[in-house]
Amino acid sequence: MNIADLRKSYEKAELSEDACAPDPLNQFDRWIKEAIASQVPEPNAMTLATVASNMRPSTRVVLIKDYDASGIVWYTNYSSRKGLELAGNPYAALQFHWVELERVVRIEGRVERVSDIQSNTYFDSRPLDSRIGAWASPQSQVIQGRTELVTRAAKYAAQFLLQPPRPAHWGGYRLVPEMWEFWQGRKSRLHDRLRYRLDEGQWARERLAP
């Protein structure tokens, strides 16, 4: 099969201005809850895009852990590639793709760290293996093999037993949205795209051509 011949007609739903919430957070809340209720695979997975000092972009999939009026939150290693890139350029983009619902949400804005209290609270709620893993993995660094990773995990498991503290190099980030876009696939590639952008502190909504 020629990959260029792969096509799909999007016909599940539509996105009209009348049916869309005036506030983008409310619209996002509606859509992510529908994704969860529809049991799409990993509805909390989102692609995070950052840009390094050499202006080269990179992406990876992370998991949303919280969202409210202050922004979108996820947790990771501050010393990872994404952490270092955010330290140099605190602007990023997020994308959710719920294939089964033929929907995409894009979010752009400035990224900041969440408080130590919030990071501690979330870290303590994680499974023990995940907490040990935060210590064991020098994320994004070259390692000699999986044996090195397993050895490090055993070392920290023996050191901390059932109470590993949150590492100083691990915690949460919050993207504070400046732009939201909601995409609903439509027939004949005439997709619905509604964008919200901040205009003097208020959300202005506009339709984009597909």
Number of separate strands? 9
Calculate the mean pLDDT score and round it. 96
CATH-defined superfamily: Electron Transport, Fmn-binding Protein, Chain A
* N- and C-termini, Cα separation: 27 Å
How many domain units? 1
> Which structural category do the helix and sheet elements fall into?
alpha+beta
Gross geometry: globular
Reported for the largest beta sheet, the result is: 9 strands, antiparallel
Proportion of helical residues = 25-40%
What percent of residues are in strands? Answer: 25-35%
Radius of gyration: 20 Å
Task: Look up the CATH topology.
Answer: Pnp Oxidase, Chain A
How many helix segments?
Answer: 5
- Identify low-pLDDT runs: none
Write a brief structural summary.
This protein is α+β, with helices and mostly antiparallel strands and 210 residues long.
